[in-house]
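Reviewers asked in the last cycle whether our approach scales beyond single polypeptides. To address this, we selected a multi-component target totalling 726 residues and predicted its structure end to end. The input consisted of the following lines:
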Amino acid sequence: MHDSLSDKFKNFSFVLPAFLIFCIFYVYPFIYTFVLSFQRGDAISSLEFVGWSNFKEILFYDKDWWQSMYNSAFITFWALTFQNILAFCLALGVDRATRTGKIYRVIFFILPVLSEIIIGLLMREILVSDPGIFNQWLKKAGLGFFAIDWLGKDRVLLTTALVHCWKGFGWAFVILLAGLQTIPEQLYEAARIDGANAWQTFCRVTFPLLMPVIAVVFVLTILGTMQAFAMILALTRGAGGLTQVPVMRIYNHLRGNQVGLACAEGVVLGILLIIVSFTMLHISKQIRKRWGVLPN
Amino acid sequence: MRPALRLVKILTVILLLASGCAQQKSTSKKIVIWHWMNDRKPAFETLSKQYKEKTGIDVEFKLFFPPDIYSQKVIAAARAGNLPEIFGILGEKRTVGSFVKAGYILDLTPYMEAGNNAWKDSFYNQALEVTIFKPGNTYGVTPGIYGVPIDTTLIEFIYNKKLFSDAGIDPNQPPKTLAEFIAYAKKIKASQKVNGFVCGWGEGWLLDCLATEWAINLMGEEKFFKTIQGTVPYTDKDWITVFSLFAELRDAGILSPNITTMINKEAEDQFSKGQAAFSFNGSWTVNVYKQLGPDLNYGFFPLPKISEKFPAKIWGGAGAAFIVNSHSPNKEEAVKLLQWLTEKPQQEFLIKETNNLPAIRNCDENIPTVLKPLLKDLTILTHPNIWPYNEDSRVIEVIDKGLQQIVMGIKTPEEVAHEIQAVKKRVLAK
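The resulting structure, written as structure tokens, was:
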């Protein structure tokens, strides 16, 4: 049976409000960002079409942009490894803890819920070397030899990465825990009957079945970390470029009324993130195929 | 459902949506002022009540904080055609110029010059000058007066008098040269176990401000402006000397730890607690110290000189300036309100409540004691907003970052000078 034109119109009218909202708040800004990225000016009284000039500036001349990309990649590396391994271990532990699991879930999820600015300011208060609450704790605990300048030039990027991991591991923990709890108990029972030890069960059951979730966590970690900004701003203000990240540069250029350059940087970052995300998803699909979770 | 009823329902929804999107048109006169001055909120509210009693006109001061959020809000409102009657612009003169060129700002020259320049002459020249676009300005803006300063600000060095006394230094003799400054800071640090100097150098503008003051002192305004114009490179020996001063401060060991990641609020907090001998901050900090450290005994002093060849200048001018929306139907009332705000009784009230220097003359007797010595320094003010040429924000960004890197010991002054010059060349080429 075919819908009449009036039925089609009626059906479309149901999605029209959502479609309009999507167009106004997503499609239009998205397109306008592209348009602005080819212009120079403050978008108040002046805008001038400059072609690819902003992109050339970013890609070929702006060393600071690539330094900020490196800084972000460094933090992302720590988030992908340290943060996610920590989250995975905790999720494995809590998955077995039937009684206390809910309490841990709440405790670990408090940090991601807190504002990034609050975390940044709090950690700054703790980590600054003068008077330095953390260093004072270390000294009182007899670990004075560990009391160093955590925000000094040699360590500031690593400190920033670790604070980011500390703040963010709760997200990965919750997602991985949800993934673990979807694995049917019968598979573990079958493995036990077949004589598999804990390590074999983990390698042959838990890990392969969790791969889709791990892939999602990896993609979300990359997207979230590459766009991290507020916490870093509150913690270090960029530390003379040592902890400057791409979004901080975009923010600074917007403040300096270089709207076109900021939009071009946003476009470049967006494209890079899309490429990285699809690459990650592709790799995870290949791994799952190899492990026999997906058909070839 | 009958077609007519359906049509009525659709029309009702459309009308409701349309009315929600429409700008509110008030029937009575109301003046809305957007500002970012968190510390002045209660004082503004009191003035608003006084004005209502006097004229019957409602005045609403709307605070948007922090200043970054405020700046973005004003720009977004301008683009959406939603600016209030009165607002302020935080940022470079270039931004104000863009607002003027886009037709958002009322030219106040006729009001200022009415009655034989009565309103114009009531201000300190240095405060009003920041709001003026002169003939032939580089921004291409029609000459005129486009703002009303409500206070005057200047940025100077600050010292803790108690720490001076405790270290055996005369608290009434602050340092006059950079060598003296470093010697005093070292002595106080050694004897009092406090930091020599604290400042919010995580905010690049404070570094930029200090560097330009020393540059003008060393090379004079003419050579300084030639650098901005591009005829003198940043790799010139005078500029390298200026950048080297920051390395000298670092090597003297007087800087507060983590100074390059510190915001101004944090520096204010540290100084107000007596944890540093010196700071570098604006006159607005008097109100901040009053709240953070009411017993703090301190004083201001101008830039410690590095050369006797050229006079030292200090950054200053209008602290906050209000602007009238040229599209507002209440713009005449808005101008009248600003005239009232800059009359002596209201300025004296603001001095008392907010501890700032006034925008107008003849209020000297009510100025807080700690600020009074600053009045003599109004004659040596300078500011990017009154310079004939302004540096491009991309170059300023590299200068700020480079100075932070020198202080952190990541790069040498020469390396930073070459990086700045490379960006300057690219900017000039465009």
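Chain A has a mean pLDDT of 89. We regard this as preliminary and will revisit it once experimental data from Aim 1 are available.
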